[in-house]
Amino acid sequence: MELGLQNKVAIITGSSKGIGYQTALQLAQEGAQVVLVARGEKQLKVAANSIKDETGQSPLIVPADVSKEKECKMIIEKTMATFGQIDILVNNAGTSSAHQFELVSSELWQSDLDLKLFGAVNCAKYATPYMRQNGGGSIVNIIAVLAKTPPASSLPTTVSRAAGLALTKAMSKDLGKDNIRVNAVCIGLIRSDQIEKRWKAEAPDVTWEEYSVNVGEQIPLSRIGDTIEASNVITFLASEAASYVTGTAINVDGGSSAVL
């Protein structure tokens, strides 16, 4: 399948590791120029060097905190100064913050919304004029699948992510006329640094494959997912192969969600 990503310019937030890094690597492998964004410059340099070793491409790195609007604007300005266009924005930055309702302070509510909701809003706000100028583009918002069915003690993260789903649908309606597609990928249990630390702490004597099956026994596909399984879907939605797909949210969760 031809993805049509050659010479496209893609910004991926939260891309120093995990799903964000794997997505940036995959987009670079498909011929896109990638912009890596995260708060930690040291880890960004490691990620950029790894992508260069794998693909020969030299990513632009932009250390930034997307919870701050002025830094979102700076990301877009540096991308335009370097590449002169923006075709793809993957809003992946975020952390897990899950507590009982009574334990969430006003400050935590605000910081979570600033990072996960307004980070996506502000990056898109500054990127879309350049996408429009270039004839269109693709925005992919990375959401937790629990945003669709929030369990107890999952605040504020599930609320911020649920807002991201509404944002995705509303933006797709407003921006479709400009050939800017907006979709979401809803992530379930995917291998990450946090899960690997849990594996090494809980079961250091078993292989990852054994641990994955044990932890994932309640998941219909019976295992924890891999980052490349998430990046495959993100890359497809970012690409020309998904040219008639907008305003949708795809679960990448091994079938664990109770809803479509």
Structure description:
With 260 residues, this protein is of the alpha/beta class. The protein folds into two domains: 9-190 and 225-252, Rossmann fold (3-Layer(aba) Sandwich); 191-224, no CATH class. Helices cover 45% and strands 17% of the residues. The protein is built from nine helices and nine strands. The protein has helices at residues 18-29, 41-55, 69-83, 106-116, 118-133, 157-175, 193-202, 208-215, 227-238, and strands at residues 9-13, 33-38, 60-63, 88-91, 98-99, 137-144, 155-156, 180-187, 249-252. It has a seven-stranded parallel beta sheet, sandwiched between helices. Strands 5-7 form a two-stranded antiparallel sheet. Helix 1 links the parallel strand 1 (9-13) and strand 2 (33-38). Helix 1 (18-29) packs parallel to helix 2 and helix 3 (69-83) packs parallel to helix 5 (118-133). The longest helix is centred in the middle third of the chain and has 19 residues, at 157-175.
The level 1 CATH classification of the largest domain is Alpha Beta
Q: Kindly report the average pLDDT value.
A: 96
Query: How many strand segments?
Result: 9
Annotated CATH architecture of the largest domain: 3-Layer(aba) Sandwich
Number of DSSP helical runs? 9
Strand content: 15-25%
Roughly what percent helix? Answer: 40-55%
Give the total of domains. 2
H/E series, N to C? EHEHEHEEHHEEHEHHHE
Distance between the termini: 26 Å
Main sheet strand line-up: 3-2-1-4-6-8-9
Largest sheet: 7 strands, parallel
Report the CATH topology name of the largest domain.
Answer: Rossmann fold
Poorly predicted runs? none
Shape descriptor: globular
Counting helices, strands and paired strands, the structural category is alpha/beta
Fourth CATH level, the homologous superfamily of the largest domain: NAD(P)-binding Rossmann-like Domain
The Rg value, from CA coordinates, equals 18 Å
Keywords: Oxidoreductase
Organism: Lysinibacillus alkalisoli
Family: Belongs to the short-chain dehydrogenases/reductases (SDR) family.
Protein name: Short-chain dehydrogenase
